[in-house]
Structures are given as structure tokens and as C-alpha cells.
Amino acid sequence: GAGRRGTPRLAYVTGRHRALARSVMADYALPEPDWLIANVGTEIYPHQAVEPLPAWRQALARDFDADAVRTWAEEALPEALLQEAAKQSPLKVSYYTAGEADPDALASRLRAGLAAAELRARVVVSYDETTDRGLVDFLAPGSGKARALAFLRRHLGLAPAAVLFAGDSGNDADALLSGICGVLVGNATAAVRDRLRAALADHPEARLYLADRPYTAGILEGMAHYGWEGG
User: Fold this and answer.
1) What is the DSSP letter of 188?
2) pLDDT surpassing 70 at residue 47
């Protein structure tokens, strides 16, 4: 995201961990970002930094017991597969599933189960169409893409209207509906598009544009919609 005036700042916001995100950046010769928000919003990296911002990580770590959540999840999701070690962290426990017909229902069931077990975690259920697998992330309370982006926005002294966020999946929903300039690009699935349309009624502060074009073309379409220079 960047302000419409002054020097633009580029941030990549991804569910991937830092090493995989940087590998994708190299493979596609993407421009170097000023900031990288990684691991589904549990880590914020300044430009080319190897270590994330300590203040964000420390704030999240106080309320999350990853080992206890993992032990509980093994019973709650007996058919799920723990993701690779590189995709886990002290602030994130992640699983692969076969994919759910009703991801919202699964998320609600998991949240209720965590509460009954007196465990604190954010639950994000999404779908990776590139691998045809469901994804379940248990995150430190207070984390997530929207909250990390809000922390970075405040850190940089930017108003919500000075930040543009583009996404295409279910785990982008909170950020897209958070009041910044949200753009759902055209390659999002119909289910994600319908879910976001329905959620607008409960998010009066949201700015959300549903682009027709996919990928980068959809981002440019969104920039034009919001009147950003270069859109």
C-alpha cells in the first residue's frame, strides 16, 4: 500500500513464511518491497531484514501457547495433516485438510472447541486452489493480515484511505473489509466473492472494490477506482 501523495511504499502481505515469500519474489523478479508481512500476519519484516519487528512478535507471543493448541488440534482435526516445519512458528500452527464445503462452519466449530478448552487462538480456514487443499491456521490472538497491516499503517502514520490492499482468498477477507482501500481481484473464486459481498452488511466501515480483471490487472483496476495516481 502507499499514500496517494508522497513516496509510495510497497508491502507484500502473504500467508507464506519469509523464505518461501522471498523465493517467489526471486522466481517472478518482483520488485523489492519496503515491508514484508508474512506467516498470515504473525511477522512484519522491514526492508530486506532477516528478523521481524520485535515489538509485534512480542505483543503476540504473550497470549498464545502453540504446543497446547497443536495438541488440541490433533483431536479436533483427526484427518488433517500438519504442514511442513518451515510453515510453523511460535505464533502459528497450520494444517492441510481435504477442503471444506462450508469453511465458515468449520471455523465456527473450531473456535467453539478452543473456547471450551480455554485456549486462545485466531482461526483462519481457507482453500489453496493451486494445490487443491484446504488450509487451517491457528494464529496468536491479535494477529492476522488485517491486524498486522493496521499495526504497520499506524507505525508509518498513514490514514486508512492512504493504504490499498489487494487479495483473492478467504484469508484476505479481514484485511479487505478493514476500512482501507480493499480490492478483490477478478481471479477470486465465486465463493469468496459471495462471502465478501454478504459480509459488507456487517462492516459499514469497509471500502471494497470487486475487480473484473485478474491478478495485477485487477490491482490496477482497483487503483483506478480509488483514484490513485498511476491507476
Assistant:
1) S
2) yes
pLDDT of residue 132: 86
Give first-to-last CA distance, the chain, whole Å. 13
On the question of pLDDT at 2 being above 50, the answer is no
127 contacts 169 by C-beta, under 8 angstroms? yes
Provide the phi-psi class of 51: left if phi over 0, else alpha when psi is between -120 and 50, else beta: beta
Helix runs in the chain, H state only: 18-27, 54-61, 66-76, 103-116, 145-156, 173-176, 190-199, 215-225
Nearest alpha carbon to residue 89 among 67, 115, 119: 67
Backbone angles phi, psi at 97, to 5 degrees: -130, 175
Sign of the Cα torsion 117, 120, 121, 122 reads: positive
* Length of the chain (residues): 231
